[in-house]
Design goal:
Blueprint: E1 13-14, H1 15-21, H2 31-36, E2 43-44, H3 53-61, E3 66-68, E4 72-73, H4 74-79, H5 81-87, E5 89-90, E6 97-102, H6 106-116, E7 122-127, H7 132-137, H8 147-160, E8 165-170, H9 175-187, E9 193-196, H10 209-218, E10 223-224
Helix pairs in contact: 6-8, 8-9, 9-10
This protein binds flavin mononucleotide (FMN).
InterPro entries: Aldolase_TIM, DUS-like_FMN-bd, tRNA_hU_synthase_CS
GO molecular function: flavin adenine dinucleotide binding; tRNA dihydrouridine synthase activity
Domain DUS-like FMN-binding: 44-219
């Protein structure tokens, strides 16, 4: 490991130094291109507290094709350079990278997307976080009840960056609502949709693969579980 003056890993670049220090990398295969290919794509799902840069570097070493950041709350990311430095670090090899945000409105999501766009290969909106604080504040799975807002957020981020924008959802008790949410997101330009096949209330219950299949066959684009 190359060390900096503080004894830290010099290859780790916090957000504030990204623009200055991250020279253009080798061409990166776009996640959409990978997902449209015939090959099996190994994706490391977003995990709060885990999928930070060192974890992503580790899974990439073991053949991960695409890695997500943990969910990053977009309003503090937009407002505070300190939050940006703490929440987003990357390096030359950290590609393809999907940056996942929690957001409650289109303006914050689009601005956060724009801020990370030079260092990312896709932007994801978390519509599945079931934690009580998230639901209370309108983040994560709270968005599953607001398909119009989700479509507006997808459209906003698409307009402000050239990156694919995706959403990650859970399933509703009534799958017709899930299909409606997916159709609206797709019409707004959503690049792909990741379905965690559990409802907001479920934790360790078996994943509902039949539900994923139904949702997947109801839309034109790509669904992943
Ligand atoms: C510790 C932990 C943290 C997670 N954090 C996130 C997150 O930040 N964003 C997200 O969309 N999903 C998050 N998830 C959900 C996972 O991405 C994944 O969808 C879920 O674990 C389902 O896969 P499994 O059945 O293999 O556990 C998290 C899951 C775990 C276990």
């Amino acid at each position: 490991m190359e060390e900096n003056a503080d004894g830290g890993d010099a290859s780790v670049v916090p957000y504030g130094r990204c623009a200055a220090e991250l020279r253009p990398t080798e061409p990166v295969i776009s996640p959409l291109e990978l997902l449209r290919s015939e090959k099996v794509v190994r994706i490391c799902a977003p995990m709060v507290r885990y999928s930070k840069l060192p974890f992503r570097a580790l899974v990439r070493r073991y053949g991960c094709d695409v890695a997500y950041t943990p969910m990053i709350v977009s309003d503090s990311f937009v407002q505070s350079s300190k939050a940006r430095d703490v929440e987003f670090t990357t390096n030359y090899d950290d590609r393809p990278l999907i940056v996942q945000f929690a957001a409650t409105n289109s303006a914050d999501f689009a601005r956060a997307a724009e801020l990370v766009a030079p260092f990312a290969d896709g932007i994801d909106l978390n519509c599945g976080c079931p934690q009580r604080w998230a639901l209370a504040d309108g983040y994560g799975a709270a968005l599953m009840k607001k398909p119009e807002l989700v479509a507006d957020m997808v459209h906003g981020a698409r307009t402000r960056t050239s990156l694919p924008v995706s959403i990650k959802i859970r399933i509703h008790g009534d799958l017709r609502e899930t299909v409606e949410l997916c159709r609206r997101a797709e019409s707004a330009g959503c690049g792909w949709i990741t379905v965690h096949g559990r409802t907001t209330k479920q934790r360790a219950e078996p994943c509902n693969f039949d539900a994923i299949k139904i949702v997947s066959s109801s839309i034109k684009g790509q669904i992943f579980d």
